[in-house]
Amino acid sequence: MKTVAIFYQGRKEVTSDFAAKLAPMLQQRGYQVRTINLLNEAEECSESSFRGCEVVFVLGGDGTIVHAARVCSCLNLPIVGINFGRVGFLTEIEPQEVETHLNYYLDSDPSVWVDERTMLSASLEQGGHTEEFLALNDVVIARGTWPRMVHVKIWIDDYFYNITYSDGIIVSTATGSTILCASENPRACLYAPWRTCSGTGSRTSGSMPSSTQRTKRHSTGTCT
Length: 224
Prior knowledge:
Order of helices and strands: EHEHEHEHEEEEEHEEE
Strand content: 25-35%
Number of helices: 5
Mean pLDDT: 79
Distance between the termini: 44 Å
Largest sheet: 6 strands, antiparallel
CATH topology of the largest domain: Rossmann fold
Shape: elongated
Helix content: 10-25%
Number of domains: 2
Structural class: alpha/beta
Number of strands: 12
Radius of gyration: 20 Å
CATH superfamily of the largest domain: Probable inorganic polyphosphate/atp-NAD kinase, domain 1
CATH architecture of the largest domain: 3-Layer(aba) Sandwich
């Protein structure tokens, strides 16, 4: 029997109720269902809850989708977002469409395909300790509580790129830059995977290919 997962935002009654309704619908179609509360999962890759699943149905908004992408990335699991947020930029279907559209995703209908997205892997080395992070949208280096702007030195694949003097810098994927752009000015979207707020004349945005292996940034201020 094939297994699917329902990943929902447990703090919202509407998603909890919908998860309780969706599980029997999937079981009637012959699937084993795992219902997983977002609050019970780690921030990063968590193999145990999702191992063996064919697909994960995510109930929530864009924030829940971003969380699900981090959690499911180690298993390369496809996720289907059902919109319970305000915008739903990353979701696929609305709650009222689930009953009529569900079979498209379960039966691999030709109209449905897996949209593979680039993700970012970041590591923070501080005080002799290293923390690892995954991001679907972007990685932000900001001054934190530091009361001044910071110098950020940037290397790409061991080649020096530039020095930015600013409040911080955002290294963004194509997914993240599109969301940032749409939230700021949807009519004037420019592809800018690198975005920063700068009070100087230094370059504030740029792009790099997804084949880039490593970017290195050194900041004189506090990293967050």
